[in-house]
Amino acid sequence: MLGAILAGGRAQRFGSDKAHALYQGRRLIDHVAESLGAQCGAVTVCGREELGFDCLADRPEAELGPLGGLNAALHHAQSRGFDHVLSAGVDVPNLPNNLVEALAGEGAAIAQSQPVVGLWPVSLSGALEAFLAKGGRALYGFADHVSARQITLAPPLLNVNRPDDLPG
User: Fold this and answer.
1) How confident is the model over 83-125, as pLDDT tens digits?
2) What is the CATH number of domain 2-165?
3) Which positions fall inside the MobA-like NTP transferase domain (predicted)?
4) What string of DSSP letters covers 80-135?
5) CA-CA distance, 45 to 28, in Å (whole number)?
6) Following CA atoms 14, 92, 73, 1 in sequence, which dihedral angle do they give, to the nearest 10 degrees?
7) For a 10 Å CB count at each end of the chain, is N or C smaller?
8) Class of residue 150 by CB neighbours under 10 A (exposed 0-12, middle 13-18, buried 19+)
9) Preceding amide of 167 cis, omega within 30
10) CB atoms within 10 A of CB 47
């Protein structure tokens, strides 16, 4: 399993680099990396260069939203012999330790409240490449296209879009 931190956004609503914003005294990206690292054989950051991490450029180009990062991760995972990609946004610092177990099952699965958090078979790499080539950009659209299961996670995942979204 390859862990993929989808971090290519511009964080316009946040006003600064979300990945480096602090939550409980640590950067958001470090929270996500720790959680994915505990559940995956390797972790990569998609959509940006980040010192100390293996990084992938969005595929086939930048500015495609989370699907560009997911596409890069699926192709990278496939070329490295991984079966699945466990994805999460850089702005979801409270991922559960049993995320793989919660999302496991037939085909793809996404967190109902946070579709960027998902478990994706690498066999979907061609389907995502074709979806992007036809102009698809919405993560929910791709999830629907591949009949991804929507899983409710408890407690709810944080979604850090603005500084105010970070709990005190």
Assistant:
1) 999 999 999 999 999 999 999 999 999 999 899 999 999 999 9
2) 3.90.550.10
3) 3-141
4) TT-SEEEEEETT-TT--TTHHHHH-SSS-EEETTEEEEEEEEGGGHHHHHHHHHTT
5) 13
6) 170
7) C
8) middle
9) no
10) 27
